[in-house]
Amino acid sequence: MKAIGIVVEYNPFHNGHVYHIEQARKSTSADVVIAVMSGNFLQRGEPAFVDKWARTTMALQGGADLVLELPYVYATAHAPVFAKGAIELLDAIGCDAFCFGSEDGDIKPFEQSISVLQNAGDKYEQIVKEAVQSGLSYPKALNEAYLYAVQLSGQSLPVADLTKPNNILGFHYMQAAREINSTMAAATIPRIIAGYHDDADDEQTIASATGIRKSFFDFDTLDSVRNFFPQGTFNTLTAWRDDKGSFGNWDSFYPLLRFTILREGPKRLAEIADIAEGIENLMFRAAKNNNTFEGFMSEVKSKRYTWTRIQRMLTHIYTGFTYEHRNEIGSASYLRLLGMTEKGQLYLNKNKKKLKLPLISKAAAFSDPSLQMDIHSADMYALGIAHNTNPPIVGGDFKRTPIILP
Question: CB within 8 A of 35, min separation 6: which ones?
Fold first, then answer.
C-alpha cells in the first residue's frame, strides 16, 4: 500500500483541509493518507481550539487514514525543529512521499532553494546568527540569509518565496528529509482561495484556520463559521461546545498563565525553555500589571520578539517545560497512534514489522521523557479548558486508546 504523509494542526479541521487530503492522495496515487498532527499546544505557541482527540475524529471523518501525534517538544518549536520531528515520524512509519500546501504550489522552486543553501554552506548559518544578534527576529534573519544565498548563487531558476508561512514550513520539511537521508519523495499543492492570515470571507466555503478562529471569537457562535466546515467537523465542534462550554485560546487560559508567572517569579521563569535575555523580568511585571492577555502581550511584545515567539515561551511557562526537559529529549523515539480508519488499520497490519520506531497505542505501555511531556501538557490543557466550566478530566490522556472509524 502506497502511503502519503502530511503534517497538520487542524485547528480546527475545515474544507481547505479536505481539499489538501484529496489532492495529496490524488497527486501521488496514494492508498492511504497518514497525518502527523500537533497535540494540544501548537507551533504558533497557543492552546488548540479543541483537543487532539476531537481533532483526530474530524481528520478521520475528513479523509485521513492514520493520525499520529507530533510530540510537544516538536509541535511547539520553531519551524526547523517542528519540521524535523514531523518528517522523522513520517519516514519512520514508512511513507513513500510527503505533501504540503504552499503559496508557490510547485515543487521545483523548493528543490532549487535547497540546492542554493547547500552551496552557501556555513555562510548561511553565520548570517542567521549575526542577524539575530543584531536584533532581527528569527524569521527575518532566516530570510535575510536566504536572500544572500540566492544572490551568491547567481541562479536564474526560480526559488521559493520564503516570506510566505506555508512556503517556509515546506522548505524546512524538504531540508529535514534531506538531513535524515529519507527516501520519501516531496510534493506540494497550491494553497487556494484564502491566505494563511486572511480573514474569513462569508461568500466562500474555504478560509484559513486563523480566519475561522478570529471570526468565531468575534461572534462567539459556531453558526458564524459553519460554511467553512464539513458536516463532521461541525457536529464534533457542537458536541465539544455542549460538553466543555468553551474553546481553547489564550484569553481563556490567561488567568492560569498569569497565576503561574506570578507564582514562579523571574528566577524560576529563567529556567523555562526559550526564555532568554532577561525577558522573564518583563513578563513578571506585565503579569502584575494586566488582567487580560491582550494587555499582557501589548506590554511584552517588541521588534526583537515576534508575537509567535513570545507565545511559545508562554506555552512552556504554562506547561512547565524547561531547558532541562528539552535537553533530555533527542530525536523522535516513538509513533503515538491517535486514530485510524479500517484502511489505516490494514496499512499498519501489513507494515508493522517495517516501522522504524515503536508504535504506541497505550501510553501506559511505554516510558519516555517526550511521551511524559505529551501526557502532562494534555492535562494542563484540560485544566485550561475547564477552569471556568465543568470539572476538568485530568489523567484522561494517559488512559486513552486510539479512535477507530470505519
Answer: 5, 6, 7, 8, 10, 59, 64, 66, 67, 68
